[in-house]
Description:
The protein is an alpha+beta fold. 29% of the residues lie in helices and 43% in strands.
Amino acid sequence: MTTTGFDYTVTRTLEAPVAQVWAAWTRADQYGQWAHAEEVALDVRPGGAWSSVMVIPGGARVPLSGRYTEVVENKRLVIGMDVPGREELALMTVDLDADGDHTRITLYQTLDSAEERDQSEFGSNMLLDGLTAYLAAA
Length: 138
């Protein structure tokens, strides 16, 4: 795990209970709906693999894969992503904190360059925008 580098943190309060937010992140049928992903496979347990094909604006399809390194139900997911040309996983942590009927979600990563950080932060905000809209329609 990288301990020095370029960090970002994104925090939002979602108008949904923590169990609903957890299900959205850990159930393939739900994840695909809000994350603009197809062919989603999630084995949500430490060491479990995940994969999906992200459909980005404009229609380009980007295959992604990795494995979970930490899973604490309704609290934390540490998601590792395979990065071409890199031996270690790129880790993203998702922390959930219950606040009554709302959930505070925090995503954070440490990356190797400012450019990677900026791209990942942009992507995380897009993910949270999709999650927010999905939960509002549920």
